[in-house]
């Protein structure tokens, strides 16, 4: 039997297997389920939901601010930074408040967090709008997440932090804000050092597997400063991060488009 | 080269690959290992074990009630609710006590818990019997766990809660008890609201990634009430849960037979 | 179409798929990235790094002993015991101190920990040397880690514990030290009991999913005693562990060479 035929068959088999994967992905897009609570889905196995009038006993058990009966919810299996930065834009754009940000130990076997973010609103239309904005922003905020088979690095930037960044990271509202993540955590230590040495920024917080994370294998540094300095720190750390994570596997890549 | 031949080969290759998977599964059934401590295995990578007379220094380090030298152990990689409800039946059926229920962050890369449950008994035969009953019950208690590539939803019900449900969830002994889980956690929020709105039940506890779970990406609601109301709440939440989780992937399915 | 041809093609496809996996592994070996911070990589997706002079604000945020400006870092996605025992040898061999040992909930979807270990040194050459020694020792310390699709068991031994074992496990410095891990945790309970019954050893600590671990699905027992007793306890537990874990899947194997 000729080598070329085997090659051709192999390719064909692989093509068909990939095709069946693609079909599986396609099925993820059928996001109409007929429930009024459902808003949409987004990157990172993220779902967006809304409850017009939360049952009072559940509301109490959730320990939410009593002012808001309508809530918007976004939560994903993969990622916390992208969802928090997306929620930050949503809060700026709508008449809502961030009631809770909770970070699971997740990423589906990866090194990081999953996320659950709850918006409060007096009017359900505002809650729904916040969820819609956040889901749409995810495409951008996943832009500077770079992964390979060994881990991931993540960079987030906003010129003007709002209430989601304040709640999650104690970021000063209205100021430039940057976030650097390295996983495995050892890489994050070097990225934190690189960022702070590259520009005149002020450290807000340093989180590690046993402190400030939900036992993720990450080191996370957050910082503030003037807009140019924050971006410079992020760009320097990103360059180093891609090289370091690459030593443990293939070249780390973004799944969307880098925005920093 | 004809398209049909390629198709046939593709099918054949896939069939053979599946066959080798099946063989792997088959090897899991060879659960005779010749150790007196071994009782059996069950769904969810669960193992059942027994120690007739725990070494005193280990017993002390485990911080167990000194009354019991014989212990039965069930522990699995995947699932906590199914194992706890199975242990609940085991406690009803045997002369044993629940000494410990510990929940790891696990499910092998999934969104939920693993479990470790320890029964105490004065006689090793009772401990062994409890483990046997629990392993057998697992087949049923996994019945209302529905999963897909994005997460899982789970529903548990008992007409008469016993000491395992009391220890794990503060369920009132002898009363109807229900449990709703949604993962990713965002789905669990809506399921909790749905359950409580569907029937007249009393909320016992609400757990979320940062409170009451081991940082799982779940929201868990437990409740009590009369038997019909508890079931009605569960059935309503289940219907919504299957739709919501389905928006993130394929149709969620149970691996065994739903019992609620 | 003849059965033999299908078989041959199937084999060929599988061979090619394996080959592409091998190539992927090979790419992991290209560990030169041109950064002075990079030292090397090792088993368990472990990376070794060094910072000659940590930025003062990061140093403060990390809450490290101010005495040391140079730090060595090893951190991996898979494993904590192997990295800690490797760091223990590194501390013996170099003029460094263990500043931090942090354990993430990781192992890439497995049942155990990842790790982050930080060495402090006055001279960066010492920090680098410690990292080099630790990375090299990993090959040995992974020797008694046995895994299969359901979990893992791990055994560690040192005739003379040093400061890494002291920091992580309260091991008495200079004395024999042993560590037994079973995952899922249920298996670890029986291994703990087996180890202590097999020889005259003194229990140092017992960790379980909810206490002393980062919510891993493990039970970990550490103990001290005379060298022969510690080894005897480990060997007895290892024999039982391989049998028990084997009931949940295939025969557990070590990826390197057992050393105990």
UniProtKB/TrEMBL annotation, chains A, B, C:
Any single Gene Ontology cellular-component annotation: bacterial microcompartment
GO molecular function: structural molecule activity
A Pfam match: BMC
UniProt-annotated location(s): Bacterial microcompartment
SMART domains, sorted: BMC
Kinase keyword on record: no
Keywords, in A-Z order: Bacterial microcompartment
Name of the protein in question: Microcompartment protein PduB
Stretches assigned to the BMC circularly permuted domain: 37-150, 156-252
């Amino acid at each position: 039997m000729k080598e070329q035929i085997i090659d051709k068959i192999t390719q064909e088999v692989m093509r068909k297997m990939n095709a069946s994967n693609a079909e599986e992905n396609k099925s993820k897009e059928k996001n109409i389920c007929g429930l009024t609570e459902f808003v949409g889905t987004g990157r990172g196995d993220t779902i967006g939901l809304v409850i017009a009038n939360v049952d009072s006993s559940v509301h109490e058990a959730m320990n939410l601010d009593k002012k808001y009966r309508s809530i918007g919810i976004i939560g994903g299996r993969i990622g916390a930074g992208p969802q928090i930065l997306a929620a930050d834009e949503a809060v700026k754009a709508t008449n809502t408040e961030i009631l809770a940000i909770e970070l699971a130990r997740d990423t589906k076997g990866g090194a990081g967090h999953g996320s659950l973010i709850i918006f409060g609103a007096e009017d359900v239309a505002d809650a729904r709008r916040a969820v819609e904005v956040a889901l749409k922003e995810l495409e951008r905020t996943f832009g500077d997440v770079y992964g390979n088979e060994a881990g991931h690095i993540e960079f987030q930037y906003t010129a003007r932090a709002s209430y989601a960044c304040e709640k999650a990271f104690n970021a000063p509202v209205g100021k430039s804000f940057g976030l650097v993540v390295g996983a495995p955590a050892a890489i994050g230590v070097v990225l934190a050092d690189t960022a702070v040495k590259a520009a005149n920024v002020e450290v807000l917080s340093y989180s590690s597997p046993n402190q400030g994370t939900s036992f993720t294998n990450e080191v996370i540094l957050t910082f503030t400063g003037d807009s140019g300095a924050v971006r410079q720190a992020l760009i320097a750390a990103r360059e180093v991060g891609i090289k370091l994570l690459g030593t443990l596997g293939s070249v780390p890549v973004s799944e969307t488009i880098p925005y920093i």
